[in-house]
Amino acid sequence: MVDIQGFVAPGFEPVADTFRANFDAGEELGAGFAAIREGETLVNIWGGTTDRAGAKPWTRNTLAPVFSTTKGIASIIVAWCVEQGLLRYEDRVSDLWPEFGAHGKDKLTIAQAISHQAGVPGFVNEIDQSLWLKPRECAAAIAALEPLWPPGSQSGYHPMTWGYIAAEIVRRAAERSLGSILREEICAPSGIDFWVGLPDSEHDRVPDMRKPTKVGSFGEITLPRKVAFFTPWASGPRSDPDWRRVELASANGHGTALAVAQLYGLYATGGEIEGVRMLSPETHAQLVERRILGEDLVLPFTMDWRSGPMANLHKFYGPNQEAIGHSGNGGSCGFGDPVTRVSAGYVLNKQSSSLMGDARARRLFDALNTCL
Q1: What is the pLDDT of residues 48-65, one digit of tens each?
Q2: Which of 68, 169, 220, 257 would staple 345 via disulfide (CB 3.0–4.6 Å)?
């Protein structure tokens, strides 16, 4: 029996029962789950182990890699720049970053770029994987790419390149890095344990990750899917400590389940995090505005992309389509639901092959909603 620790508010015991059942079914190694409603913690639980040998317990302070769940958090920083008057979603990326306009990308707006419409989901030609660990150089290489489809015409998920595009937009607009703004303006003042760019002092809190035994089901491996996921250089050397240190706004956020729930709380409350208003109602409305709806050229789904995160079109994040969330490689995810005013985060170290809508998380979200 796995020792489940943490806090469960009265009436939310079925969530903890579901969490335990995931372990009992052999589907977890270590994991955490949290849900909050307007600053009130409903559930904050964890269990299992952080190492492959099963000797080190998962604790309140374990910092799990959440991969693309980071995107929904990084999107908040782009919105923060809008709130500060540093940029507008309708601005052209090339006005801020002229080099990005190469090969017909000059008319692409910031809103289109961060909703996966740029046409540059990866590198067709081989690159040294270490380029992913050099954000400025990698951003320059992405800017020079020829798009695989007419920019702004369709979406095609940009698993890695999204983060370099978003971070370079933020850096040029704010003259600060995306990760530093997240830390200094949001996480540190509110005591939120989430990082994009993890200092060495925190590395011993990171669990070992157990990779899935098979890849997700994409269907036909088209060129956009190949360059996004299926080349040897499609991602960086994730076992390298530099992967944790460098700021990768698309893929290397580290945090607790509670931290993910706290940050995604912005989507549940219309712009607040831990009771502090971060975005005006007007800016928040732009953040969650639909930017494109249709069959994605990379993910095998119809996608409803907002200004970075996704709407709950497929009910991955509970029953309400109004919920806004994002999933990460292997199963992590976070969402905020403006209908219930609840946000939640799920983190783990035994990765599944699910592209989105991990079954473990969906059970937890279903249990949560039965308790609301």
Answers
A1: 999 988 899 999 999 999
A2: 257
